[in-house]
Structure formats: structure tokens, C-alpha cells
Write a structure and sequence with these properties.
By secondary structure, the protein is mainly α. It has 5 helices and 2 strands.
């Protein structure tokens, strides 16, 4: 009899624990505050507008040449287009960071974002050098803590409602 009471009490404790967990999970969930959130809303809105314009400018560079019509200088032409697109991306980053957000923590986050974007820009420039050597290799970007830098750039952009400031996907495999 004593053993049955112990089992019942134990099962009741488990049920109570599950009930408390679900009440907490449904009514008191943890905040989903982004660790890369910029508090300066005016800065993020300005950055979004700058990036949107840069993306529209890059869209004008689209090359719809069919592969059978590409010719022997196709890789060199592709490298030139990528360099032109990268120039636009670099100018975009320059313009975005020309105005700093309010607050030291915000400025630190933007500096990290800028450094990651500059790394991606360097990767794009190195890729065009490879193309000009006649090697049609896939684009490889720098890894940061086992993830491509574009992942961090995209997390920053999404967390700050700056979707047009995501890493360019024109070289994605």
C-alpha cells in the first residue's frame, strides 16, 4: 500500500510539473529579442532605403546570355559583371556606415556588420581573380564560427528589418 501511494505521488508530481511547464510556455514565453538588434530605428530605415537602391542598381546588371552563346571569353565577362556588382555592394556599405547609429552598442554592432560585409566583398574580388584565370570554380566565402559570413549578414538584416541589406545571392550555388 505504501508503495502505491509513493507511485501516485510521484505521477502526480510529474503531471503537475508538465502542467506548470505548459502554462509557462503558453503564457510566459521567453522574449525573442535579437542579439543583433539596432535600437536606432531611423538608422535602420535609412540603411534599408540605401540597400534597396543598390539592389535595384545591381538588377540592371543581369546577364541573360545562354550558355551555348557565351563564347570563349565568358568567364572574363562574368568576372567583369561580378566586379561591377561588387562595386555597387561596396558603395552601398560605404553609404550605410557613413552615418552611425545612436549608442555605443549600436555602433559596435554596425562595425561588426561592416567588417563581415567587407570580408564578403574581398571574397567576391578573389573569386573574380579565379574566373579571370579561366577556372570556373564555385564561389566560396569565408567561414566565421563554422558558418558562412553571409549567414551573419542575413541574421543582422532580418533582425533589424533591413531585408534589402542581406548578403547578395548572385553567386550562390
Amino acid at each position: 500500500m505504501r508503495r502505491r501511494t509513493f507511485v501516485r505521488a510521484f505521477l502526480a508530481l510529474i503531471c503537475l510539473g508538465l502542467a506548470v511547464f505548459w502554462v509557462w510556455a503558453l503564457f510566459f514565453p521567453p522574449t525573442k529579442q535579437s542579439v543583433v538588434k539596432i535600437d536606432d530605428q531611423a538608422w535602420t530605415e535609412r540603411a534599408q532605403a540605401v540597400c534597396r537602391e543598390a539592389n535595384l542598381e545591381r538588377d540592371d546588371l543581369i546577364d541573360l546570355t545562354r550558355i551555348e552563346d557565351a563564347g570563349p571569353d565568358a568567364l572574363a565577362r562574368r568576372a567583369t559583371l561580378i566586379d561591377e556588382a561588387t562595386d555597387i555592394v561596396e558603395a552601398m556599405v560605404d553609404e550605410v556606415v557613413s552615418v552611425q547609429p545612436v549608442g555605443l552598442e549600436n555602433q559596435r554592432l554596425v562595425e561588426t556588420w561592416e567588417n563581415l560585409f567587407r570580408t564578403l566583398i574581398d571574397d567576391r574580388r578573389a573569386y573574380t581573380d579565379v574566373l579571370r584565370l579561366g577556372r570556373n570554380e564555385p564561389f566560396a566565402e569565408t567561414m566565421a564560427e563554422d558558418s558562412p559570413v553571409s549567414s551573419y549578414l542575413n541574421d543582422f538584416a532580418v533582425g533589424n528589418r533591413m531585408n534589402d541589406c542581406k548578403a547578395p545571392m548572385d553567386l550562390a550555388v
